Amino acid sequence: MPLTRTADLLTSGAAVAAFNVITVEHAEAIAAGAEAAGHPAVLQISENAVKFHGGALAPIASAAAAVARASAAPLALHLDHVESVDLLHAASAHDFSSVMYDASALPYAENVKATAEAVRWAHARGLWLEAELGRVGGKPGDAHTPGVRTDPAEAAAFVADTGVDALAVAVGSSHAMTTRTATLDHPLIAELREAVPVPLVLHGSSGVPDAELRRAVASGIRKVNVGTALNTAFTGAVRAFLEAHPSTVDPRRYLAPAREAMAATVERFLRVLG
Q1: Helix, strand counts (H, E) of the chain
Q2: In 14-151, which residue ranges form alpha helices assigned H by DSSP?
Q3: Is the dihedral of CA 211, 213, 214, 220 positive or negative?
Q4: Phi/psi of residue 103, nearest 5 degrees
Q5: Number of alpha carbons in the 13 Å side-chain half-sphere of residue 17
Q6: Number of domain units in the chain
Q7: What are residue 112's phi and psi, to 5 degrees?
Q8: pLDDT digits 0-9 by tens, 70-105
Q9: 203 within domain boundaries
Q10: What does the radius of gyration of the chain's CA atoms come to, in whole angstroms?
Q11: Residue 129 belongs to a domain with what CATH number?
């Protein structure tokens, strides 16, 4: 199936899950889970994943795109948490239809300026651009410290001044959570939905319980990012296999159950959101 555009998924009216790709097995698992659930999904590659692959975007992007095209599920390709302008500028040559440009660590005025420049560059090339306002946990700062959550009035001004197509908001989730114990600020999500005319994105969704995710979607979240949950499933399956078969040296023996565990995780998240 041809690659789907992120914009088409996020303007369909339904919530969409976006899953992090680190290895080819991640991409294959996302495709398999989406097919099993009967829902579309976004395959997203972060700047950190690109760094893991030696700074080379083309190999992992090409592999993810090939997996997506071979799938029967509608899948889009997204470049996530980009801070490097050079990496942003590489997106248009590698099948991405959207980029999350992250200048959220900068002071507000500098974030606006840098994001607006990224938007102009992306729109000239037909790319959707997501940005972040506030401070999602798991990065410097604390998701629960007063003042770090996204302010609705500031969010409305930010979107108007930058022209972004989607906005990642800080509403209580944290990156890299391995337990599903996060509690979201649902009244704030609803206020942001009223104030902001573009789709809202929830980062750090691995640590959010199912009921909280459903409420977040009902309150106005339209893109749900999941990364750590896949890695937890992957690592758990590999660890269990090697503990049971300590003499194994063929990586295919333990990567297969790891891929299956990730696919089951993808399917579960998609069914929760679907």
Answers
A1: 11, 8
A2: 24-37, 47-52, 57-70, 85-90, 108-123
A3: positive
A4: -110, 25
A5: 30
A6: 1
A7: -60, -50
A8: 999 999 999 999 999 999 999 999 999 999 999 988
A9: yes
A10: 18
A11: 3.20.20.70
- Catalytic choice (80, 102, 151, 185): 80
Residue 1 domain flag? no
pLDDT digits (tens, 9 = 90+) for 207-236: 788 898 999 999 999 999 999 999 999 999
Question: 10-residue block means of pLDDT along the chain (274 residues)?
Answer: 94 92 98 98 98 97 98 98 96 96 90 96 97 64 53 95 96 63 83 96 85 91 94 98 97 98 97 92
Q: For 73, which DSSP code?
A: S
Lookup: tokens for 240: 């269990």
Does some domain include residue 57?
yes
Q: Check if 80 is active-site.
A: yes
Q: Which domain holds residue 77?
A: 6-273
Tokens of 155: 């969010």
DSSP-derived pairing of the beta strands 41-46 and 98-101 = unpaired
Neighbour tally for 141: CB within 10 Å: 16
Q: Which one-letter amino acid corresponds to residue 194?
A: E
Q: Is 95 within a domain?
A: yes
Helix (H/G/I), strand (E/B), else coil: 15: coil
